[in-house]
Amino acid sequence: MDADYRAQLTQAVIEAKATIDAEAAKTPFGVPVAMGTWAGSSQVAGFGTTMYLLHKAFPGIIGTQYTLDALDYVLGRHPATNLSLVSTVGTESKMIAYTHNRADYSTVPGAMVPGVLVIKPDFPEQKVAWPFLWFENESTVATTTAYILAANAGIMAAKGQ
């Protein structure tokens, strides 16, 4: 990118960082937590990946902590439980999900579930052993790939790259 384009993007990133920091400060987890009808682990994983890419392009503005906080959230530092939202990843993880097998209480190793649903005004919920609330417990290809990208970004961020 030429210098003029980079200067414009730099200003946009500086402005976005202020908005991102204000949003992240609303919870003790340092990430934007979904408030609505769908739990937000995929959103958090996507946030971590995006922030890593911004860090790579603008390391003087965006640090690695955003990415590491997102990965921490997905792996168990979130409201309601301390369960990793990725099946078979972590010391305690989500093992009963609503998967492509649907109602058989199955586990797909590496699959990420939407996770903790925050019901307004601020009541976190996650049904751990009952998979039928798909908006908390469904594992899909999209959520799993979001986790894989975030995990790779987290590894690079932890290495300082």
Oligomer: single chain
General form: elongated
Strand order across the largest sheet = 1-2
Number of E-type strands: 4
Uncertain spans, ≥5 residues at pLDDT below 50?
none
Count, helices: 5
Radius of gyration: 17 Å
Fraction of residues in H or I helices: 40-55%
Sheet/helix structural class: mainly alpha
Largest sheet: 2 strands, antiparallel
Instruction: Give the ordered list of helices and strands.
Output: HHHEEEEHH
- Our estimate of the beta-strand percent is 5-15%
Please tell me about this protein's structure.
By secondary structure, the protein is mainly alpha-helical. The protein has five helices and four strands, in the order H-H-H-E-E-E-E-H-H. The protein has helices spanning 3-24, 41-57, 65-74, 134-137, 141-158; strands at 97-99, 102-106, 117-119, 123-125. Strands 1-2 form a two-stranded antiparallel ribbon. A two-stranded antiparallel ribbon has the order 3-4. Helix 2 (41-57) runs antiparallel to helix 3 and helix 2 runs parallel beside helix 5 (141-158). The longest helix has 22 residues, at 3-24. The radius of gyration is 17 Å and the shape is elongated. The mean pLDDT is 85.
